[in-house]
């Protein structure tokens, strides 16, 4: 049986500078226990397969944004007492974002009907200037119609992401016209028992096989 690794904020902070990159390609930021500066970091140890259990879980971001129907969505209120997968990314991302969401969709399809009903998957755009509700909704329906998509003011999104240890930066256009968006690529799993993120998945650790195996425990409020 695989032993779950519990990471300390100190070990995680050691590689903060290595964890964030631009998309495309976005490879993303990392995870950490909730430290002092709020930036996203990853473990300095060799990465093991599966979710990482945080020694200090993250509170759920206090975000009130706009969903794909154009309606106000209070993340804390709407997901209270439910298992939640939270990811920050954007629809024009050429690599890590669509792959991560596709992997979640495949893993979710393997769950029981009851497990599917309980699980909330929330995608918050890191590029709200381009990802309006219609654009976001169209993109997410291609992944899984049950996924919740949120957009809004960038500063609000950035501040909320930082409270969960995820770093995102404003998108900018290069001389050749390409738009670059830098964002963390970690996936956070919140427990239905206390609404805190106890488990973090880094890029490369969100395969359908890993998620299919570990999501049933997360849905129950257990650590994988």
SSE blueprint:
Elements: E1 6-7, H1 9-13, E2 22-23, E3 52-59, E4 64-67, E5 72-74, H2 75-79, E6 84-89, H3 96-109, H4 113-118, E7 120-125, H5 133-141, E8 148-151, H6 154-163, E9 172-173, E10 179-182, E11 187-190, E12 196-201, H7 208-220
Domain Thioredoxin: 54-220
Protein name: SCO family protein
Signal peptide: 1-22
As an assembly, this protein is single chain
Helix/strand order: EHEEEEHEHHEHEHEEEEH
What's the average pLDDT? 83
Structural class: alpha+beta
Low-confidence stretches: 1-21, 25-47
Give the strand order of the largest sheet, numbering strands 1, 2, ... along the chain.
Answer: 1-3-12-11-6-7-8-4-5
Helix content: 25-40%
Distance between the termini: 11 Å
Shape assignment: globular
Strand elements, count: 12
| Tally of contiguous helical segments | 7
User: What fraction of the residues are assigned to beta strands by DSSP?
Assistant: 15-25%
| Biggest pleated sheet | 9 strands, mixed
What Rg do the Cα atoms give?
Answer: 16 Å
């Amino acid at each position: 049986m695989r032993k779950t690794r519990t990471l300390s904020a100190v070990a995680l902070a050691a590689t903060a500078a290595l964890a964030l990159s631009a998309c495309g390609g976005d490879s993303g930021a990392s995870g950490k226990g909730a430290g002092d500066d709020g930036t996203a970091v990853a473990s300095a140890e060799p990465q093991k397969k599966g979710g990482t259990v945080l020694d200090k879980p993250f509170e759920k971001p206090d975000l009130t944004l706009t969903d794909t129907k154009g309606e106000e969505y209070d993340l804390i209120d709407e997901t209270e007492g439910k298992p939640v997968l939270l990811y920050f990314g954007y629809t024009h991302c050429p690599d890590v974002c669509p792959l991560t969401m596709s992997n979640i969709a495949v893993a979710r399809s393997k769950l029981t009907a009851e497990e599917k009903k309980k699980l909330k998957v929330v995608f918050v755009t890191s590029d709200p200037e381009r990802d309006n509700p219609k654009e976001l909704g169209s993109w997410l329906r291609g992944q899984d119609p049950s996924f919740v998509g949120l957009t809004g003011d960038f500063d609000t999104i950035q501040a909320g992401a930082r409270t969960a240890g995820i770093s995102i930066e404003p998108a900018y256009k290069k001389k050749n016209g390409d738009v670059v968006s830098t964002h963390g690529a970690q996936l956070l799993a919140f427990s239905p028992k206390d609404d805190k993120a106890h488990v973090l998945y880094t890029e490369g650790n969100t395969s359908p096989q890993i998620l299919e195996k570990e999501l049933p425990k997360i849905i129950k409020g257990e650590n994988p």
